[in-house]
Amino acid sequence: MIPRARCPRREFGDLTADTMNAAWRDVEPLFLADAVTGAAPKQGTQVRIAWDSREWRILFHAADTDAWATLTQRDAPLYEEETVEVFFDPVGDLESYFEIEVNPLGAVLDIVLRKSRSGYKADRAWDCAGLRTRVEKDATSWTTELAIPFASVTDRTPQPGAIWRVNFCRIDLPSRDGSIARELTAWSPPGRANFHTQERFGVIEFAE
What we know:
- By secondary structure, the protein is mainly β.
- It is built from no helices and 14 strands.
- It is globular and about 45 Å long.
């Protein structure tokens, strides 16, 4: 079954990457599950979503006793290490979709994928104009907040009742030497070790 979630409207200030921030406090979390089996992961992840008149806001809170990464450049292959990811199609026809990743060092990878005769073609030259991110870490978790300007991904600001196709995902590498297998988790598990399974994207509805 494809999951559905409500995306409430909130008034936000600066990015805090803080689950206790007043704007996030009463937003119900979404939970990620194993991408293949749907089972509970070893290190869980909660995702909260909301919006205001200008931006879509996303808050990832990932349990992690060793949140690490080495890549710091924009558009580096963050998926080779630890990262959180959002995939979204504002139109909903799955002819194209956006992908934005953030790693524990705050590095960003943003891509737009468009359907072609051979599948999907990734445009790595695309940058999400005005994207803002913040990462905070402690001994047991890392938290990432994203602010995605609507003007950078759609020609119209969503109104209450608007529907987007979306998935939220995470790559967790418990051991830096690769001795423990990576853990792939998703809000809408694709049933395979590949997040690029657009027919499995969930549904969010923008609400007041």
